[in-house]
Each structure stands twice: as C-alpha cells, then as structure tokens.
Amino acid sequence: MKITIERAALLKALSHVQSVVERRTTIPILSHVLLRAEGAGGAGRLALSATDMDVEIVERVAARVERDGHTTAPAHTLYDIVRKLRDGAQVELETPSGAGGGRNELALRSGRSTFTLACLPPDDYPVMSAGELPHHFVLSAGDLRTLIDRTRFAISTEETRYYLNGIYLHATKNNEVPVVRAVATDGHRLARVEMTAPEGAAGMPGIIVPRKTVLELRKLVDEGDDDVQIALGATKIRCAIGDAELTSKLIDGTFPDYDRVIPVGNDKLLDVPCKEFAEAVDRVSTISTERSRAVKLAIEHGSLVVSATSPENGTAVEELEVRYQNTPIEIGFNSRYLLDITDQIVGEYVQFQMADAGSPTIVRDTAPEANGVSALYVLMPMRV
Fold it and tell me: Whole-prediction pTM value?
C-alpha cells in the first residue's frame, strides 16, 4: 500500500473513527484502525475503519493511491501524529511491498517528518456484520441533531438499569399524524421529542440506541447538512452520512412505558422568560451545596422568587416577573436538571405545568416549530 493524502482530509476521517476506539482494551487489534487503499491509477480512496465490537465506523476519503493494499495502525497514535502535522501538509502512507509474515510496519512521511508505526495483521481485524436491516428511511442532519440534542442529556448513566442507557426511538401517532419519537429518562427527568415521520419510518420497531452510539452519531452530523440514510432491524442500526457509515448494536431490553410518568391535569401554569430564568437559576445555584444543587421556586401572581440556601455558604435570592394566575406554590428542583432543559428551549418563554410541590412537573417550549417538531420534558421536584 502506498498513498498520498491531504492532512486535513485524513485528520477529519481519523477524528471520527478513532473516537470509537476504547483507550483500554484487552484485545490489541481493537486499539487499531484498519486502513484500506483502493483505486490505484484512478479515483483512489482510503477507507478507515474502527470498532469496539458494539459500534463500527467506516469513513472513505479521496487519496492519490499508487499501490493498493491494507494494513492496521494504532488509532490514537496515528490520530495524534496527524493532528500535530502542519496545516496544508501532504501525508504519505506506505507499507513495504511484498512484505511477508514478518513484522508489519506503516511508514508515515510528511515534510521532513518520518514515523514508522508497528502494525498488526489486517486479516485479524474483526468484521462487524449488520445482518438484516428491513426498515429504511431518511432524516435530514438537522432533524437528527434535534432528536439527539434535546434528549441525550436525560440518558441514564446507571449501568444496572441498562435499558435506560440510550435513546428510545420509535414510530407512533399524534392526533392520527405519524411521528417519530425519541425518549430518554434517568428516573429523575424525562425528555420526549417528536417530529413528523419520514417515509418508511412508520413500521419501524421500537429500538434503544446506546449512549455511545448516540454521541458518535452526533459527531458525524455536526459538520454537514447531508441527509442521513438510516437502516435498522431488531438488533442493529446503520446510519450513512456522506462518506461515513456507522453500524451499531442496539440495547437488548424493554424501555419502560414512559406515558405513565407524564402527568395529566397539571393546572398551575407558569410562563417565564427562558433566558432570564436560566441565568437566575445559574447565579443562585452558586450558593447551593454541590451534591444536590437544589433551588427553590416560590411562585405567586406575576412573581417568581428563585432561591438557594446552604449552611456553609449562606443564601441567594433573585426575583423575576412572570405570567402566573393560580394559587401560590413553592417547589424545589435540581438546578443542573433545570439548566439542561432550558438549554433546549428555542422560544422566548418556557412553560412549567405544575400540580403540587411533590408531583412531576411538565416543562414545555412555547414556540411553534417546523416539521412537526415538539418537545416535552418531565422533571421530578426535590424537597428544599
């Protein structure tokens, strides 16, 4: 194998694939990226692959290929080398031609720099088969970003409840209109976002996309506006975006019936300017103890007082003008959870729908959105 490639193109592809590779692995080949050069003498391409056996990313990038071939290289080392090369540099990658059963090596040259990396046999690299993926549909990069960004903060990190360690993606109907809905919860808060279902999504099974897959997918849709081709089955999902393709196992579990925790009949409606509210919560929570970061909301007609108390640090109080026409109520929340939700609000006002100080509160964005997007959040109160 012998190729020449632009540093920027190689760095972008490596940044995507190397992030799948675990820093600590007991299987040496999984710490490597597979490099495959094809198209010598024509439209050459370099394909880079990385996997942890649960998630696999393959990305193809244009290159000048003098000699076809394939090898592996230590993923994080290769990425760090390319990252430190000069902007605009050309990078030459070469493996010895006709090298037999001896030690595999990859030579990397750029300008006056030369690196020789020890490689593992490419034939040992594991191939992750996607299996049967009968359901196909297309989402725009913007829509996928919306589904991920507005739900991922609520994904549980508690490994014992593994079925909550991802985003539950499924097709359903809202007022007889087919929608795709993404839901995440950690037991303290719940995020539910839906949008008009694209063609082909209506019959999809409910799937739980693991947290790591969600984060890697978000990186892939961060830079471009290409449509995302999604194919899925009962156990795997594959997403193709531009020159990159991500395949992942799904969480084998049953997501809880989240509709049961969304309260109905919460009649105390508070409309508060989102930006002012978030800034007030952020300031006041500075005084609260790090463990709970609790803040209290004291609400009465037209007025909201945000406060926090700490035996070590003292007290903090801030008052806001709001729209509220019901009986006075005092309710406490984890300030971090409040800020996570207000970060997702696009409208000027955020609405809280409350019942009492001990019952779940619904939080909604008051701004109408395009493509049938709507978001709903449920937050459990705290004793303060």
Answer: 0.92
